[in-house]
Write a structure and sequence with these properties.
Largest sheet: 6 strands, antiparallel, barrel
Number of helices: 9
Radius of gyration: 22 Å
Shape: globular
Number of strands: 17
Length: 381
């Protein structure tokens, strides 16, 4: 019997080509469309219906069976609730990371096994060695390992990434040559449940906004904000500050939650936009931790998707990562992920909890009862 592979299909070109390649390689391929969010647009049409139609059209061309499965409840409980909690706490979360761990490689994986699958496949631009290692995609501009760093070896051993060794241009060219109707479909961007809508309007329907002052480093009030949850570190657009200061652009440099103040400064090179140290919570590793508790690892890190590799020194202690960037980093943002690499291999990472300067480090370590605080401070001072 042919080995059955169940492909998570979004209606986009990447997952469509993944299914096509597996079919051409002789696998018993089944397409599954995951409906993770239930909502209608202004005309009353379900926003996922268009993508589901594309999945059906593609599967008909390839000649494979297809199903739709509703994970909206799981998505709300495991991903969206976390998204709201993080924004309520003044952080900027990345729900795509959690969606991969909780939905695509947990709920969907379980569903695929019930269909008799040997493995699942997705259209992610990543690779694996078959033993559970996560490797960068061949197309450096499309590599998505950043979003999969929370997975485990056991999940990756049951996963295939057929387009991981291709470039995006090659994927589109193959789709067009095989007559797939989505060969020129625009890639989706941003958070799936927000789509093309105004972010402020969407978030305000779930969380009450609390306007407050925008404050410069000297303590002067330079404007009003619409609610701290609408802003992220390093943001320039949408501040609406004019007619004050030296004429340079204003940027968000921090949030003062107790006083509901947005901290802003002028100039994209302002020193308060940069930091060299941060603490990452909920450290997670794809395989075994690459260093023991209290030891230091030198590796590469991405503090945001598409960022070039940044050299760092990392210490694992009490379930947290103490991360020291060897060059100052711009707008490292609590709630986002710091993802670690050694060469092509993604090691794992953590969610940025606190951004620090050298003077704050020991006090934070003490407050959280983190051992080796003195050693860390001396090594990385």
């Amino acid at each position: 019997m042919k080995e059955r592979i169940v492909v998570g299909m979004s209606g986009g070109v990447d997952s469509s080509v993944a299914a096509l390649l597996l079919k051409e390689q002789g696998y018993d391929v089944v397409g599954v469309f995951m409906k993770n969010w239930e909502e209608q647009d202004e005309s009353g049409v379900c926003t996922a219906e268009r993508d589901w139609q594309d999945v059906r059209d593609v599967c008909d061309v390839i000649g494979i069976p297809y199903y739709s499965v509703n994970f909206a409840r799981e998505y709300w409980d495991r991903v969206f609730s976390y998204f709201l909690r993080e924004y309520r706490a003044g952080r900027t979360p990345n729900p795509d990371v959690l969606c991969n761990r909780e939905i695509k490689f947990r709920a969907f994986l379980d569903f695929a096994m019930q269909l008799g699958a040997a493995k699942i496949a997705t259209g992610h631009f990543v690779r694996t060695d078959g033993q559970g290692a996560l490797l960068r995609g061949a197309d450096g501009g499309k590599d998505q390992s950043y979003f999969l760093y929370m997975l485990k070896e056991a999940q990756l051993r049951k996963a295939m990434f057929p387009v991981g060794g291709m470039t995006k241009a090659e994927v589109r060219a193959l789709a067009e040559s095989r007559g797939l109707p989505v060969s020129r479909k625009k890639d989706s961007t941003g958070v799936c449940f927000i789509g093309e809508r105004n972010f402020k309007q969407f978030l305000s329907s779930f969380l009450p906004a609390q306007p407050g002052d925008m404050v410069a480093p000297d303590g002067s009030v330079v404007g009003r904000h619409d609610g701290l949850m609408y802003y992220t570190l390093g943001q320039r657009r949408g501040l609406g500050i004019g007619g004050c200061g030296d004429g340079r652009s204003w940027f968000v440099i921090g949030k003062d939650l107790p006083k509901n103040r947005l901290l802003v400064a002028q100039g994209e090179d302002h020193p308060m936009l940069y930091s060299s140290r941060c603490v990452g919570a909920e450290a997670t590793w794809i395989g075994e931790p690459p260093m023991a508790e209290g030891e230091t690892l030198r590796c590469a890190c991405k503090f945001r998707y598409r960022q070039a590799d940044q050299p760092v020194e990392v210490m694992l202690t009490a379930g947290r990562l103490m991360i020291h960037a060897l060059t100052p980093q711009r707008a490292v943002t609590p709630g986002q992920s710091a993802v670690l690499y050694q060469g092509e291999r993604c090691l794992g990472g953590a969610v940025v909890e606190t951004v620090l300067d050298a003077g704050e480090l020991s006090s934070v370590c003490e407050a959280n009862e983190i051992p080796n605080a003195a050693k860390y401070t001396n090594d990385f001072a």
